[in-house]
Amino acid sequence: MTGELRPMPQDWQRALAIVAHPDDLEYGCAGAVAAWTASGREVSYLLVTRGEAGIDGVAPEQAAPLREAEQIAGAAEVGVHSVEFLDHRDGVIEYGLALRRDLARAIREHRPGLVITLNHHDSWGPGSWNSADHRAVGRAALDAVADAGNRWIFPELVDHGYEPWAGVRWVAVAGSTRPTHAVDITDTLDRAVASLAAHRTYLEALSDEPAEQHARSFLEEAAREHADRFGGRTCAAFELIGES
User: Fold this and answer.
1) What are residue 177's phi and psi, to 5 degrees?
2) Count of CB atoms within 10 A of residue 172's CB?
3) What is the pTM for the complete model shown?
4) Beta 123-125 vs 42-47: how paired, if at all?
């Protein structure tokens, strides 16, 4: 894809990030989150699972609290202090009404102007298939934005005090193969590295490389990937869906 990436919209105050696993946001867009919170905006995280199936050598009942704690620590590094976990099973998330209802409930509760999610497309690029969890959560997040604004979809949510919210103006998809917008993360890259490195147990299970070194090498490369389309600036890129 060619063409310049446009700056992300600035006229919003509250965002809700919805992803499948601990570390999804840290690999995808923590530098942008750090820039937004530094400017006074509020960002909350919603994790659909606790990442319990993510470490081969650690049983799920032991991995879940470890990964939950690392996610909370990683979020704090970029100014996020609201982190909620659902209890869908890691690795086997099912797209469907239960997931849409949970996400619509969260959107009604947080009332964001911007929803952030991770790549919901079939692949990360040629020869690289995206995981079922990412695809299910990303697509459910897009659908839940509409669900959240319609009182006749999941009317039981209204019965529990979650009034409709039709105020989401955009969904920003991190890691998309079709980016349209970006955020300059020149000043927040170090905070993004610290955020990803907070997932120490997970990263050390992936590689013999120290967590900080892995985080920096991955994020520096990712930040340069679309720089030529964003005035040469290191950036976090998004596919923006919603108002033009």
Assistant:
1) -80, 0
2) 26
3) 0.96
4) unpaired
* CA distance linking residue 118 with residue 114, whole number of Å: 13
124-140: buried (b, 16+ CB within 10 Å) or exposed (e) per residue?
eeeeeebbebbbbbbbb
> Quick one: tokens of 194?
């610290």
Backbone angles phi, psi at 130, to 5 degrees: -80, 155
Strand 114-118: give its sheet, edge to edge.
6-7, 181-184, 235-242, 170-174, 114-118, 14-19, 42-47, 83-85
Does position 2 have pLDDT exceeding 80, yes or no?
Answer: no
123 forms beta bridges with: 129
Spatial separation of the C-alpha atoms in residues 7 and 181, rounded to whole Å: 5
Rounded to an integer, what distance in angstroms lies between the CA atom of residue 142 and that of residue 151? Answer: 17
CA nearest to 167, candidates 149, 150, 152, 153 = 149
Contact 9, 39 (CB under 8 A): no
How far is the C-alpha of 207 from the C-alpha of 196, rounded, in Å? 14
* Cα torsion 215, 216, 218, 224: sign: positive
Q: Which residue has the tokens 């976090």?
A: 236
DSSP H helix total and E strand total for the chain: 9, 10
CB 63 within 8 A of CB 108: no
Dump pLDDT digits (tens) for 152-168: 999 999 999 999 999 99
